[in-house]
Amino acid sequence: ELAGGGAGAAQGLAGVGTRSFARRGFGVADDAAEELIAKRTTQAALQKQMLDAQVEEVRQRKLREQEEERRREARELAAIKRAEEQARKEEEEKARAAREKEQAELNRLYQEQEDAIRR
Predict the structure, then answer these.
(1) What pTM does this model have?
(2) DSSP letters of 47-115?
(3) Could you read off the pLDDT of 78-109 as tens digits, one per residue?
(4) Which parts of the sequence are annotated with region: Disordered (predicted)?
(5) Domain extents for the chain?
């Protein structure tokens, strides 16, 4: 079978190859071979599940990190906007106070002129 290079040889080289040994009479009973294949298949499935779980865990962690980064940036942007708004209000208040002071000075000068004219 090996010399012919048929399907049995390919099967013997691929994967576990226990079936091939059992068919060629190497002393491994079919039940034992099937049991070994089942165990290895189960083991491979469990390993795949573990790897899939690890991949999912990494994916979830990256999503959390991205969300945390987005929230941090949003907080920073909100803080900048609040600071800009506060600075704008302070400038408006300074300008209003300066206008009121100027108006009060003009009113005082006007009143002094009127008082001088009356005398």
Answers:
(1) 0.48
(2) HHHHHHHHHHHHHHHHHHHHHHHHHHHHHHHHHHHHHHHHHHHHHHHHHHHHHHHHHHHHHHHHHHHHH
(3) 999 999 999 999 999 999 999 999 999 999 99
(4) 82-119
(5) 7-118
